[in-house]
Design brief:
39% helix, Alpha-Beta Plaits, 13 strands, globular, alpha+beta, 10 helices, four-stranded antiparallel β-sheet, 2 domains, nine-stranded mixed β-sheet, Ribosomal Protein S5, domain 2, binds (R)-mevalonate
Length: 357
C-alpha cells in the first residue's frame, strides 16, 4: 500500500459538569494545546504492530492480536512495562471494532502513537487515542473519514472499553474548540480563549516508580470511578438528584460567564463545581490539597477536572485553575507539592489528518 497517514488530536479539559454528564446533565469541555498523534504505515507481516511513546517518560511496543485478552507485548524503552497491556485496551478495541464493522483484516499495519498527554490525568488521553487511531485507520483503509462518523466510532470504542462514558471526551478530541454535551447531544460552541493552569498529580508517565500492577489498573481508572459514583448515586438517590440539578445550573451559568468574560463569576462557579465533585466522592486528598492551595494563593477558581481520582490509586488526576493575577504563585506552590504544572490555552484545533503518499 505504501502510504503513510498521520492523525493528530488535542487533549481536553472538562471545564464544568464531569460525572454529572454521564447522567444527561450539561457539561462544557474544551481542547487544550497538548496533542497526541497516530501514524499508520504498512508492514509485511499480517496484524498490527503498535509502538507507543508517551513523551518523555515511557515507551511500549507490542503486537496486537485483536479478540484475544492480551497482546504479546514487550516494553522496550525506559522501563519494564510488560504488565501495562490494559493501558492500550483502547487501541486493541479500536482495531477489533473496525475489523468487525468494516471487515478490514487483510493487512499488516504499523502504528506509532506519540503523546504529550499524561495518562490517567483526566486530560482525555483515552479519547484522544480512540479518535486518532480510528481516524488514521479509517483513512488508511479508505472506509470514510467524515468527522461525525469518526466521533461516533471512537465513542463506541470508548464505551466498549469503559462501560459508561459520555460523548464529551471523544467530541473534543474530534472537533477541538469548545463542546457542550447534554442528554448525550453534542453541540459545538464558539467561546473566547481562556488561559488556565493544569496541575497533574502522579500521572502514570510521571510516577513509574510505582509497582506495575498498579500502573496497569490505572489504565481503566475512569471506569472504576464512574462505577463508584453510580453506586453512591443509587444509595443516596434523593440527595444526589439535588446535587446533579445544581451541577447542571452551574454549567449553564458558566457558559454565560465565559461569553461575558466575567472571570470572577466563572472562578466562583469553578469553586462551587469542585464542592459538588467532592460531595459525590471523586476528590482524593492530593487533588483536594492542590485546589485549596490554589484558592488560598489567590486563584479566581479551582476544581478537579475529568474523572477525578481515588486515594487508593495514589490520588492520580488533575486540577484546573483560573489563575487571575496569581499564576506564578500558584504554579510555584503546585511544583512544591510535586505536581506536574502546565500552562494551557483553551479552544485548540481538533482532529487533523494528513496523508503522505
Ligand atoms: C471523564 O473525562 C469524564 C467523566 O464525566 C466520564 C465521561 O464523561 O464519560 C467522568
Amino acid at each position: 500500500m505504501g502510504k503513510k497517514i498521520q492523525a493528530s488530536v488535542p487533549a481536553k479539559v472538562i471545564l464544568f459538569g464531569e460525572h454529572f454528564v454521564v447522567y444527561g446533565k450539561q457539561a462544557l469541555a474544551t481542547a487544550i494545546n497538548r496533542r497526541l498523534t497516530v501514524e499508520v504505515t504498512s508492514k509485511e507481516k499480517k496484524g498490527y504492530h503498535v509502538k507507543i511513546e508517551n513523551i518523555p517518560t515511557f515507551g511500549l511496543e507490542m503486537d496486537l492480536e485483536p479478540g484475544k485478552e492480551e497482546g504479546k507485548g514487550k516494553a522496550l524503552l525506559y522501563k519494564d512495562y510488560d504488565h501495562a497491556t490494559e493501558a492500550i485496551a483502547y487501541v486493541r478495541e479500536a482495531t477489533r471494532y473496525l475489523e468487525e464493522k468494516y471487515g478490514m483484516d487483510e493487512e499488516g499495519v504499523e502504528m506509532e502513537i506519540k503523546s504529550q498527554i499524561p495518562l490517567s490525568a483526566g486530560l482525555g488521553s483515552s479519547a484522544a487515542t480512540c479518535v486518532a487511531t480510528i481516524a488514521a485507520l479509517k483513512e488508511y483503509f479508505d472506509v470514510g473519514g467524515d468527522l461525525e462518523g469518526i466521533r461516533e466510532d471512537a465513542h463506541s470504542v470508548e464505551l466498549a472499553v469503559q462501560g459508561a462514558a459520555s460523548p464529551v471526551d471523544t467530541a473534543i478530541s474530534t472537533y477541538g474548540g469548545y463542546v457542550s454535551v447534554e442528554k448525550g447531544e453534542v453541540k459545538r460552541l464558539r467561546l473566547p480563549e481562556l488561559n488556565l493552569i493544569v496541575g497533574c498529580v502522579g500521572s502514570i508517565p510521571l510516577s513509574m516508580g510505582m509497582d506495575t500492577k498498579k500502573v496497569s489498573e490505572m489504565g481503566l481508572k475512569t471506569k472504576k470511578i464512574v462505577a463508584d459514583v453510580k453506586w453512591r448515586k443509587d444509595m443516596f438517590k434523593s440527595i444526589f438528584d439535588y446535587i446533579f440539578d445544581a451541577a447542571e445550573e452551574i454549567t449553564a451559568q458558566a457558559i454565560r460567564a465565559i461569553e461575558d468574560e466575567d472571570f470572577v463569576k466563572l472562578g466562583a462557579l469553578m469553586n462551587i463545581n469542585h464542592g459538588l465533585l467532592d460531595a459525590i466522592g471523586v476528590v482524593p486528598k492530593r487533588l483536594s490539597e492542590l485546589v485549596k492551595m490554589s484558592q488560598a494563593s489567590g486563584a479566581l477558581g479551582a476544581k478537579v477536572t475529568g474523572a477525578g481520582g481515588l486515594d487508593e490509586m495514589g490520588g492520580v488526576g488533575s486540577v484546573l485553575v483560573l489563575p487571575g493575577e496569581c499564576g506564578d504563585w500558584i504554579k510555584a506552590a503546585m511544583e512544591i507539592a510535586d505536581a506536574l504544572v502546565m500552562d494551557v490555552k483553551t479552544g485548540g484545533e481538533g482532529l487533523k489528518v494528513t496523508v503522505f503518499d
